[in-house]
Amino acid sequence: MSTYKTEGIIIKRSNFLESSLLLHIYTKNYGKVETVARSARKAKGKLKGHLELFLDTELILAYGRNIDTITSSLTVESFSNLRNSLEISFGAYYVLELVDKMTIEEHKDERIFYLLKNVLFFLDKMVLDELSLQGVSQDNVANPKLSSLRIVKGLPRSLRLPRNDINILILFFQINLLNLTGFSPELNKCIFCKKLIKSGKNYFSFSMGGIMGQECFFKNPDAVLIDDNKIKLLRLFQFKGGDVKEFNLHLKKSFQIIKKLKANKKLILNSVFLLNKFIEFNIERKIKGVDFLRGV
Length: 296
Ligand SMILES: [Zn+2]
Description:
The protein is α+β, with helices and mostly antiparallel strands. The protein is about 35% helix and about 20% strand.
């Protein structure tokens, strides 16, 4: 039996046949993979508990004629704290759904893997921070060992994010996934006349993929008004391109910015909705998880 090994994060999980699972996994080495885990739902199955959603795992897969199957799974990071906060887990579900719907199989991008892993890491850590603020002993938390929360590639060791920052992380994730999947919105020049965008009255066009000045509004009256603060916020995290090393550096810098950023909560949430609409327009699919981000 020919096999291959890779690290991957489980982004979609559904029951398959009598006792198996159908999984979508975003892997480090092969991009998104659809795979089956046979007998994974059997009480004594060796894969039981090792293929939960959010899990970052070291996998061995066997090539199959129609679909590859998982033969072994060893947890790298369980991100199990996510299950202790409904609101934060909604954010994490949303992120998984975005990766699942915005990526295609057999298209490898290690940067997407690191983006996902790091954002899940911070969401997971946010739950721990919240619980410790509430005075809950971390011994009672599903994954109590703070030391087990390894900092992934080049990130600062202690990055404590206030609770409200969940949407800024989501926004950061949206922008970067758009950048990495080739859907970057144009945020600097008018998409019609290419003039630099000046502060004042500007519009965002979903169909043209970016910002346009007032002088061109008549060319696309369906565009929506976008204010200067929102434009600044969207520009803040754009990844201008580069390899894995440069991307990891960009992640590190961005998380430092996120840590210090003081932006209006409503502005952040509205920007998340704007980008979600832009994503849905591009992929021609609905992102269901967005409905749960409201009110966070
Ligand atoms: Zn223009």
